[in-house]
Design goal:
This protein is of the alpha+beta class and 467 residues long. The chain has 17 helices and 21 strands. The chain binds flavin-adenine dinucleotide. Flavin-adenine dinucleotide binds next to helix 4, strand 7, strand 18 and helix 17.
């Protein structure tokens, strides 16, 4: 239900137990809270959130260790193994409480998305994601965040305990005797204070706020930003204003394969199925199987800040499950060549150099050897017709934010809670440590959905709705 025109008096009579600011991953919190009997108001800044926020732009990969899908597939996994992966990828820098809570809740969350929300969850077992010991990313057909979000929105809209107010922006919050007052601003500039029991900041990070990105993550400040325009850092600002602490503000998810100039996501399945990246000198410049987030800065460091992703028909077929990949092809970003020389010509590369680069990669693949960059993942040898896509490195979203505990409750510097305040997703400290290299596939959505889910359970517990 949208309700821009809803009268203040009417809304007062429906004082929400929980206000959720942000209808992305925050909807998991709204739904879980309503399921536990709480009255929820979702305030969402953008009218176009169903197609414009980060959750909608994602490839919908949600990690869950020890899930029933894994058991059915004979995969022996556990939260402990997942936590060890997180700590290995972040070199021990991920927030321990948040990482433990999220690796612990992942399997339960995925089951809830399937059983309560009704999403057709499945386990992705076609490619290993760098850093994950086991196949543990669960997704929806099409691997489309838009489809995942559509399911959450439909369930929330059908729930009589949930009211969605959009467009309406949370601009501030202040403590009241019994909770918090959320200050909401409407597009015409009118403001309204809504009293609530608790407030969940699910407004994402500050990727769209150039000044904050320059301040906290200068290494990616010049990159194309490929995330929601609404990620202005509102949650961070409001939380800090209420006395919260913040951490890991230099953490971000980059991506090394955004097609240019199309601004569509080619996706890293291209590399994990056997593709390579070359620069304008027709040379490879690193280990493509290392992780797409940290590789973004490496692509940006190449001449012109771009690279050419090279695949063949086998890789092309393997990437078909991804809506994003197909959209990139439909946009015209993929150009086919009958041989190496033709490919070199298409992209203005030196033909002899490109032939040598491909020959080296093929030799490693055929012999199963590690190359000079440390790449030993060669599931396929590129052959036959070759396709190329010009790509660049992009900033997808920021990963650091307000410090929270294992229940997503926002913390002060001294470790005490900021009463009634919760944070999730990009607004909260995540589980990626510092910089870009701590990011594991799925570690954007898990804090988004998982912290919101845990926050809802804590609000319900404190309200005496659950033990
Ligand atoms: C292209 C792309 C692909 C990705 N793929 C994956 C993936 O496969 N797996 C994964 O784990 N992560 C992935 N990520 C990251 C993941 O999408 C995000 O980490 C996650 O969706 C963040 O959820 P969120 O709820 O914090 O933010 P969002 O989904 O962006 O939701 C925040 C909402 O808050 C609203 N808002 C902002 N400010 C206010 C305000 N002041 N008041 C009210 N509303 C406000 C916004 O309009 C928005 O709707 C990807 C990101 C991108 C960009």
């Amino acid at each position: 239900m949208s309700g821009e025109g809803r009268a203040g008096a009417e809304r007062d009579s429906l004082r929400p137990d929980l206000v959720v600011a942000g209808a992305g991953g925050g909807l998991a919190g709204a739904l879980r809270a309503a399921e536990l009997g709480l009255r929820v108001l979702v305030v969402e800044a953008s009218q176009h959130y169903a197609h414009g926020n980060n959750t909608s732009m994602s490839t919908a990969m949600v990690p869950g260790a020890g899930s029933r899908w894994q058991k059915e597939a004979g995969i022996d996994d556990s939260p402990e193994i997942f936590l060890a992966d997180v700590m290995a990828k972040t070199k021990g820098n991920a927030d321990p409480a948040v990482s433990r809570a999220l690796t612990g809740v992942g399997a339960r969350l995925v089951a809830w998305l399937a059983d309560y929300v009704g999403l057709p969850m499945e386990l992705a077992t076609d490619i290993p994601y760098p850093g994950h010991t086991n196949f543990r990313c669960h997704t929806v057909p099409g691997r489309s965040g838009t489809k995942m979000l559509a399911g959450l929105i439909a369930k929330a809209e059908a729930d009589p305990k949930i009211d969605i107010l959009a467009p309406a922006r949370l601009v501030d919050a202040r403590p009241t005797r019994e909770g918090l007052a959320a200050l909401i601003e409407f597009p015409d500039g009118a403001q309204e204070a809504i009293e609530c029991g608790s407030l969940l900041l699910a407004t994402n990070g500050f990727g769209a706020n150039r000044e904050l990105v320059e301040r906290y993550i200068p290494e990616i400040a010049e990159a194309t930003y490929h995330g929601s325009a609404e990620s202005r850092g509102d949650g961070l600002r409001i939380g800090l204003g209420l006395g919260a602490d913040a951490d890991c503000l230099d953490a971000y998810q980059g991506h090394a394969a955004l097609a240019v100039p199309y601004a569509t996501l080619l996706g890293w399945a291209t590399m994990m199925h056997g593709g390579i990246l070359v620069n304008s000198e027709a040379r490879r410049f690193g280990n493509e199987s290392r992780g797409y987030s940290e590789y973004a800065a490496e692509v940006l460091a190449q001449p012109g800040g771009t690279a050419i992703a090279i695949i063949d028909e086998y890789v092309f077929e393997k990437c078909q499950p991804f809506d994003d990949f197909r959209a990139t092809v439909e946009a015209g970003a993929l150009r086919w060549a009958n041989n190496v020389e033709e490919l070199a010509e298409l992209f203005g590369l030196d033909g002899a150099r490109l032939s040598a680069t491909l020959a080296e990669a093929r030799a490693c693949s055929e012999n199963g050897t590690e190359d000079g960059f440390g790449r030993s993942w060669w599931p396929h040898t590129l052959n036959g017709r070759l396709g190329g896509v010009r790509v660049t490195g992009a900033l997808f979203h920021t990963q650091g934010g307000l410090r929270v505990d294992e229940h997503a409750a926002v913390l002060r510097e001294d470790g005490t809670r900021v009463e009634h305040l919760y944070a999730s997703g990009g607004a909260a400290v995540g589980m990626s440590g510092h910089g870009a290299s701590g990011y594991l596939a799925g570690n954007g959505l898990l804090p988004a959905l998982g912290l919101a889910f845990l926050a809802a359970e804590e609000v319900a517990r404190l309200a005496g709705r659950v033990s």
